[in-house]
Amino acid sequence: MSKQEDEKDTSKDGNKMMGSRGVSRPMAMKQMKQHHDKQQKDDGGMDRDMMLHMHHKQTLWIYWVLILLGLWTMAAPFAFGYWNNPVQPAGGRDVWLAQETRIQCMIWSDLISGLLLVIFGWRGLLPNRPISLWLACGVGVWMSFAPILFWSPSAAAYYNDTFVGALIIALTILIPGMPNMINYMKMGPEQPPGWSYNPSSWPQRSIMIAAGFAGWLVSRYVAMFQLGYIDQVWDPFFAEGSRLVLTSKMSEALPISDGALGTFAYTLEFLMGWMGSPSRWRTMPWMVALFGILVIPLGLVHIFLVASQPVIIGEWCTMCLLAAAIMLPMIPLEIDEVIAMMQFMKKKKREGMSLWMTFWKGGTVDGGGSDKRTPEMIAFPRQPMKVTASMFWGMTFPVTLVITTLIGVWLMGAPAVLETQKPMMDVTRICGALAITISVVCMGEPLRLGRYLNLLVGATLIMAPFLAGGGTTLSLMNSLAAGILLIVLSIPRGPINESFSTWDKLVR
User: Fold this and answer.
1) What is the DSSP track for 249-301?
2) Whole-number Å distance between alpha carbons of 418 and 411
3) Are 245 and 317 in contact (CB under 8 A)?
4) What Cα–Cα distance (Å) separates residue 146 from each residue in 65, 149, 410, 416, 443?
5) Nearest CA among 207, 177, 433 for reference residue 336
6) Which residue, among 159, 194, 47, 148, has the nearest Cα to 503 in the 3D structure?
């Protein structure tokens, strides 16, 4: 067979592999694995450069869209009139830039960002330009953050930049996959060795994506009020409480809107949920680590700040509580993927591999296997209960932890019902917030051992009537009863349905 005929056959095979209308990254990963296996049998494998060029050819439309978005961004200040009807932040808050300066910053930010998108998009028309694509992704991140940093006085600028910024991130590293990953991608198991399920499967990630989007909607509404785009914030339970909380000194502790910062964090969480294949615990450790940081430590900080509002400000905010309620279950839902990634990194270290290179480029591992247990997401319309159940593998809901969660909810509201005064009121509410957080987090099977922290919360409630004043007889009895119940209910472990390899010894 001639060289030209061989190339023609290879091209045909590539078209079958990639599809004629462009592919997404998960499709490409699966199809390339199938094609890789076939080629291994046929002729010893397919050249990675050829695979890279084929993938680039099928995703070429993305780089033209980047150019068009760059032109759109440069035209946006004039099309939307960023200088028309500027607004002031809620509560008359002083910000670090004068209004005219903020307008100019937004205009120049869009002009420069748009120009960079045109340049990086043009460079991306040729294959093997990963730096340009990463820089374009950086422009998308900047556009999502710039309206927050500059306290955009134009609602149109905020809406346009945050939407286009998220779209750019998706176009550069989500839809086509991480730039040039084909060059160092290694085939391997989807399910971690020793695990009973795959914590990076699409059902497991879909619940995180849904929660991230819900949190984004709530935080965005709060941000619109703080930035001054709407005059009032809706609150069906606490009336003026939300306005007082969102314009308080506590809310102004940061130089930027805390609601808008939460929106930015949720944007990254939502997008990162889509990133990577079902084996990303080993192929993209850096991404799993970053996702874990956004969800776990930063999520806990967010929850405790919200829970401390009635203690510091003396008011509640419905939207703030809703955002915290959305964030809290994300912690036990994400921890299993972080554990699988850490186990993989530990194995590679024992094998003498560079942790730095493994962290950024991933690798393969012995053991594990294909994920035959997880149902396909395409089955959701026909088998919604089965797919939904798989979203919560690794998380169970023992009756004891459900009751301690309800006790925590009662403790946060009890001071208002029982007319408790400070400092007993503050102690009760803080203990309630801790009980809720500990109970919900420990519904995650890998973190079940943490339920013993409620022993300390219960002991604090028992001692509080004797150490803190401001409690009525009824509130003191309530504190004693709640403390005893928390201690008793924190002892049983509850059911454990899954296996987590070496982590099993810590599940007690």
Assistant:
1) TTGGGSSS-HHHHHHHHHHHHHHHHH-S-TTHHHH-HHHHHHHHHHHTHHHHH
2) 10
3) yes
4) 21, 5, 41, 41, 38
5) 207
6) 194
From residue 232, alpha-carbon distances to 42, 86, 90, 158, 227 in Å are 67, 17, 9, 18, 12
**82-131, pLDDT tens digit by residue?**
999 899 999 889 899 999 999 999 999 999 999 999 999 999 998 888 89
Q: What is the DSSP letter of 363?
A: -
What DSSP element (H or E) covers 119? helix 99-123
Q: Is the pLDDT of residue 44 over 50?
A: no
Q: How far apart are CA 252 and CA 263, in angstroms?
A: 16
Long-range contacts of 136-139 (CB under 8 A, 24+ apart): 136/66, 136/168, 136/172, 137/168, 137/169, 137/172, 137/173, 139/113, 139/165, 139/168
pLDDT tens per residue, range 373-428:
999 999 999 999 999 999 999 999 999 999 999 999 999 999 888 888 888 888 99
Spatial CA neighbour of 437 closest among 334, 306, 313: 306
Rounded Cα distance, 452 and 433, in Å? 16
Residue pLDDT, tens place only, 461-496: 999 888 876 667 888 899 999 999 999 999 999 999
Cut 0.70: pTM above it: yes
